[in-house]
Design brief:
heterodimer, A: 292 residues, alpha+beta, Alpha-Beta Plaits, 4 strands, B: 229 residues, globular
Chain lengths: 292, 229
């Protein structure tokens, strides 16, 4: 690796230092932004939960009085309910219980973001074949503002905005998480690569220094090597068994026996590796000490 | 500072106790036994021309000689577990030039590696290396590659690598060999400073290279049998 990837890994190259600092700044920024996005997403999800409760019936109507009249929202809602009950295409209509958040929903639905509106929501069930636009037309009378929401994810003004927020928030969160993991992986990569490089250097050129880290006897080293080698062979064997059945795992229904077989092989490989390593670290030193 | 060889019952002050019995067929005086006290300096003087003596490697690897005995810092090497051996090894520094380790690395990195291996924190290892290199007069060459240094510089790097972990025992293999007398004296002076600071030194040397007016005691190492090749 030396001479190929970097001119000299020690001391830390300026590139690595910049990468570390960049990763730190990126991580910090991403953390703040991530918290903000999470907060927005949570608020959106809360709104969605609220909407699910509020949007009852086939359609929801938002009604409010126009600025010219000083009619209360309840009175407007009462008049609108009377008109709806007289409409032959309507099965049932009812006013939602008053809720402080309804004003916000009504504003969103009536598309009056700059005007404070006190509106009420009406839940309406329609007869099959009834046209929403016809219902809406019959409600448009002097002194009454009315808007309709059909509860569809793409057609509902309320849900559409929320879905858009969720999608943008999700994308931003995904992007941030990617950036975050990239930053972390950069730091870890540099650190791991440096440490690995040092261990490689020690094992190649300074075995006596390496013993400052791991003071293994020849027998222990041989035992660990044997354990790792056997484990690697067993792992390769298990992988060889697993690969042919992978398509079956993905596409077939009855995969229990194959999966069990592959899992058993992996466990055997791991257990063998573990047992041999434990043997190397415990039994061999005892034998070595017992040997005069 | 007391330097000397001899038996001592106080295991705490005993850095190394070594016994290599004579092999079957060899005369009894071909055995080697010595004890190195804390803060002492001893030369293992081998016959001229014989440059390989297994004693330092035996102590460094904490592997007693066959049928022999080795105690390091009061611990029987044969009875020491893995973690104990690692702890003991961290109290030992090695000054060795041949084979030149890490000659392809910068001086700072080559010196920091043993400190990193002992403690695992690279920034600390670098700090320790800077201090020791500064003491050895290599501050300005710390970013130079080891192989770009002259022989004196490489010996100093070897000494820095040995001392970077502030060991209690320094094993030195023919320290300053092939250096000009004045440079060798300066180099041994640095080793002497470390010894004065409380580090015990066990150095190998051949009879002809034993420095004039050396400090410490000399232990004559019996000739090793020829190994048929």
């Amino acid at each position: 690796m030396i001479g190929l990837t970097r001119s000299s890994p020690w001391p830390e190259s300026p590139g690595d230092r910049r990468r570390r600092v960049g990763a730190f700044v990126l991580t910090l920024t991403a953390s703040f932004a991530g918290v903000m996005i999470l907060a927005i997403l949570l608020a959106s999800l809360q709104s969605q939960a609220h909407l699910r409760v509020r949007l009852q019936g086939d359609i929801t109507l938002a009604v409010a009085s126009t600025d010219e009249t000083l009619e209360s929202p309840e009175a407007v809602a009462g008049r609108a309910l009377e008109w709806l009950k007289a409409d032959p295409s309507v099965i049932d209509a009812s006013a939602e219980p008053a809720d402080p958040q309804d004003n916000e929903l009504a504003e969103g639905l009536l598309a009056t973001p700059r005007t404070r509106v006190e509106g009420r929501l009406l839940a309406v069930r329609l007869r099959p074949g009834a046209l929403r636009s016809e219902v809406l037309k019959r409600l448009r009378r002097p002194g009454v503002m009315v808007a309709i929401d059909d509860h569809g994810w793409l057609t509902s003004p309320l849900r559409r905005g929320l879905a858009l927020k969720l999608a943008i928030g999700g994308l931003a969160l995904g992007g941030l998480l990617s950036a975050f993991s990239l930053a972390i992986s950069q730091v870890v990569r540099v650190r791991l690569a440096d440490n690995l490089e040092r261990v490689v250097q020690l094992s190649k050129w300074g075995m006596s220094d390496l013993r400052l880290m791991f003071h293994l006897t020849t027998g222990e080293s041989a035992g660990i090597g044997l354990g790792l080698l056997t484990g690697a062979f067993a792992g390769a064997e298990a992988a060889g068994q697993l690969l042919p059945v992978l398509p079956g795992l993905l596409f077939a229904n009855n995969v229990g026996p194959q999966l069990a077989s592959a899992a058993a092989l992996i466990w055997i490989a791991l257990a063998t590796c573990l047992a041999l390593t434990v043997a190397a670290w415990t039994v061999l030193p005892v034998l070595a000490r017992a040997t005069p | 500072m007391v330097s000397g060889i001899g038996a001592s019952d106080d295991a705490l002050s005993r850095v190394v106790r070594y016994h290599r019995p004579a092999r079957p067929g060899e005369p009894p005086f071909s055995s080697l036994s010595f004890t190195l006290e804390d803060g002492a300096w001893a030369w293992l003087v081998g016959p001229t021309g014989q440059r390989s003596d297994p004693t330092l490697d035996s102590i460094l690897d904490l592997s007693p000689p066959p049928e022999g005995r080795l105690e390091v810092f009061g611990q029987d090497a044969r009875q020491s577990g893995r973690s104990m051996r690692r702890r003991l090894r961290r109290r030992i520094g090695l000054v060795r030039l041949q084979p030149d380790p890490f000659i392809h690395l910068p001086v700072l990195a080559a010196t920091a590696l043993p400190a990193w291996a002992a403690a695992g924190v690279w920034s600390n290892a670098e700090r320790q290396s800077r201090e020791i290199l500064s003491w050895l007069g290599l501050d300005s060459r710390r970013n130079a590659l080891v192989h770009a240094l002259d022989l004196d510089g490489r010996w100093r790097v070897a000494l820095a690598r040995a001392l970077v972990n502030a060991p209690q025992l320094v094993l030195a293999e023919e320290p300053g060999r092939d250096l000009a007398p004045a440079l060798r004296k300066t180099f041994l002076g640095k080793l002497q400073e470390a010894n004065a600071a409380g580090m015990a030194v066990l150095a190998t040397v051949d009879e002809a290279s034993l420095p004039d007016g050396f400090i410490g005691s000399a232990i004559r190492v019996p000739p090793q049998p020829e190994i048929a090749t």
